[in-house]
């Protein structure tokens, strides 16, 4: 299944970009494309990472903050750092142990793991090896019984929140997958939902996703689960306000890593407006293009409570299983500590808007 490793793929990984290069060298091109790609012309995909390039951190000196503490508290739980694993389908595409290895890797850092509805391994098995908080990402299917059973199983297995993805009434048109006629290889399938004909992710979504999903889904979800509900895929201020009014316990500012609406803005650009609109009502998380510790601190300075990381975790999993996942998360954590120390903040409570400036706004 795996392609040859070219000479330019680094043996050792010191950055998330090193892991990305390794993963690209190892994966068959169609699987690489499925992971790396976005919808349409991939404008939004590129915008997510590019937005970080326009933001500078403004260091403060002689603050005595050389030993920063990265811990936060979210939804009643302590996290060792404001970093979690974003929900990504089918970890078994890149590693035979799939989400089990990811959970082991995340456990080493004690960081949370949001498990996809389309996980390739069994929820209870993931829970058995997890070491940090586990959240279940939920796609709401036309078949509400399938959806409800998934939620009930997660709750029973000790998952601590439901992350309802709200930006997918249908799948975005991911042209790389269309051109590759992408199919899941034999042996890769969702392990936690009943049904058949999963081979084409786009084809399955077209049949199974509820295209009529609206805000009433929240009260339905409340009626089947007592877990906190996180809405993932909010990009606008009025939707953010509405989410709070509808009783969401947290939101994730996300454009699905550029895989849904191509032409939607970078998440980092929308973050400050959403934080202002929510006005402290619920924690605001963000994902999309976070690749360095500086990026994490930039998100927090703009008001995010935490970040989720998607593709880099799969790169780590591809390159080294649980060790690779632990490697990716460890690098981000080390870089976050470096960044905090060098910016002059010793705890995340001390991080605020005054630490960042858009390039264009500098005097
Ligand atoms: C995703 N994402 C995703 N989101 C979700 O809610 N449910 C899912 O099953 C998936 N599956 C998935 C597969 C793959 C291969 C990718 C790359 C992404 C989106 C994911 O949770 C997250 O929003 C983005 O990946 C964040 O952007 P970065 O960190 O990948 O830039």
From TrEMBL:
<feature type="domain" description="FMN hydroxy acid dehydrogenase">
    <location>
        <begin position="8"/>
        <end position="361"/>
    </location>
</feature>
<feature type="binding site">
    <location>
        <position position="116"/>
    </location>
    <ligand>
        <name>FMN</name>
    </ligand>
</feature>
<dbReference type="InterPro" id="IPR013785">
    <property type="entry name" value="Aldolase_TIM"/>
</dbReference>
<feature type="binding site">
    <location>
        <begin position="287"/>
        <end position="291"/>
    </location>
    <ligand>
        <name>FMN</name>
    </ligand>
</feature>
<keyword id="KW-0560">Oxidoreductase</keyword>
<feature type="binding site">
    <location>
        <begin position="310"/>
        <end position="311"/>
    </location>
    <ligand>
        <name>FMN</name>
    </ligand>
</feature>
<feature type="binding site">
    <location>
        <position position="139"/>
    </location>
    <ligand>
        <name>glyoxylate</name>
    </ligand>
</feature>
<dbReference type="InterPro" id="IPR037396">
    <property type="entry name" value="FMN_HAD"/>
</dbReference>
<protein>
    <submittedName>
        <fullName>Alpha-hydroxy-acid oxidizing enzyme</fullName>
    </submittedName>
</protein>
<feature type="binding site">
    <location>
        <position position="232"/>
    </location>
    <ligand>
        <name>FMN</name>
    </ligand>
</feature>
<keyword id="KW-0288">FMN</keyword>
<dbReference type="GO" id="GO:0010181">
    <property type="term" value="F:FMN binding"/>
</dbReference>
<dbReference type="GO" id="GO:0016614">
    <property type="term" value="F:oxidoreductase activity, acting on CH-OH group of donors"/>
</dbReference>
<dbReference type="InterPro" id="IPR008259">
    <property type="entry name" value="FMN_hydac_DH_AS"/>
</dbReference>
<feature type="binding site">
    <location>
        <begin position="87"/>
        <end position="89"/>
    </location>
    <ligand>
        <name>FMN</name>
    </ligand>
</feature>
<feature type="binding site">
    <location>
        <position position="165"/>
    </location>
    <ligand>
        <name>FMN</name>
    </ligand>
</feature>
<feature type="binding site">
    <location>
        <position position="256"/>
    </location>
    <ligand>
        <name>glyoxylate</name>
    </ligand>
</feature>
<comment type="similarity">
    <text>Belongs to the FMN-dependent alpha-hydroxy acid dehydrogenase family.</text>
</comment>
<feature type="active site" description="Proton acceptor">
    <location>
        <position position="256"/>
    </location>
</feature>
<dbReference type="InterPro" id="IPR000262">
    <property type="entry name" value="FMN-dep_DH"/>
</dbReference>
<dbReference type="InterPro" id="IPR012133">
    <property type="entry name" value="Alpha-hydoxy_acid_DH_FMN"/>
</dbReference>
<dbReference type="Pfam" id="PF01070">
    <property type="entry name" value="FMN_dh"/>
</dbReference>
<feature type="binding site">
    <location>
        <position position="254"/>
    </location>
    <ligand>
        <name>FMN</name>
    </ligand>
</feature>
<keyword id="KW-0285">Flavoprotein</keyword>
<feature type="binding site">
    <location>
        <position position="259"/>
    </location>
    <ligand>
        <name>glyoxylate</name>
    </ligand>
</feature>
<feature type="binding site">
    <location>
        <position position="137"/>
    </location>
    <ligand>
        <name>FMN</name>
    </ligand>
</feature>
<feature type="binding site">
    <location>
        <position position="174"/>
    </location>
    <ligand>
        <name>glyoxylate</name>
    </ligand>
</feature>
């Amino acid at each position: 299944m795996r392609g040859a490793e070219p000479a330019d793929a680094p043996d050792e990984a010191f950055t998330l970009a090193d892991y990305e290069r390794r993963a690209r060298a190892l994966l068959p091109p169609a699987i690489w494309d499925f992971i790396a790609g976005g919808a349409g012309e991939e404008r939004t995909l590129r915008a997510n990472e590019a937005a970080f390039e326009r933001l500078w951190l403004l260091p403060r000196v002689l603050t005595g903050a050389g030993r920063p503490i990265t811990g936060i508290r979210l939804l009643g739980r302590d996290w060792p750092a404001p970093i979690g694993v974003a929900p990504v389908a089918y970890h078994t595409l890149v590693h035979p142990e799939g989400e089990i290895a990811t959970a082991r890797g995340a456990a080493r850092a004690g960081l949370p793991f949001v498990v996809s509805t389309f996980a390739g391994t069994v929820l209870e098995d993931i829970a058995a090896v997890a070491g940090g908080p586990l959240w279940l990402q939920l796609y709401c299917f036309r078949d509400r019984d399938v959806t409800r059973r998934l939620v009930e199983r997660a709750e029973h297995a000790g998952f601590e929140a439901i992350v309802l993805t709200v930006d997918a009434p249908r799948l975005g048109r991911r042209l790389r997958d269309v051109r590759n006629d992408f199919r899941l290889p034999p042996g890769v399938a969702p392990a936690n939902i009943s049904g058949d004909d999963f081979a084409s992710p786009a084809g399955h979504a077209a049949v199974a996703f509820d295209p009529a999903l609206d805000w009433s889904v929240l009260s339905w979800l409340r009626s089947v689960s007592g877990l906190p509900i996180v809405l993932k895929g909010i990009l606008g201020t009025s939707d953010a306000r509405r989410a709070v009014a509808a009783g969401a316990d947290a939101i994730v500012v996300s454009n699905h890593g550029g895989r849904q609406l191509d032409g939607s803005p970078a998440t980092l650009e929308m973050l400050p407006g959403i934080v202002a609109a929510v006005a402290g009502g619920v924690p605001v998380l963000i994902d999309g293009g976070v690749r360095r510790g500086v990026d994490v601190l930039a998100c927090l300075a703009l008001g995010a409570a935490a970040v989720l990381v998607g593709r880099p975790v799969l790169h780590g999993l591809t390159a080294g299983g649980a060790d690779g996942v632990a490697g990716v998360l460890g690098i981000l954590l080390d870089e976050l500590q470096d960044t905090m120390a060098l910016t002059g903040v010793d705890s995340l409570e001390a991080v605020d808007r005054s630490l960042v400036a858009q390039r264009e706004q500098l005097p």
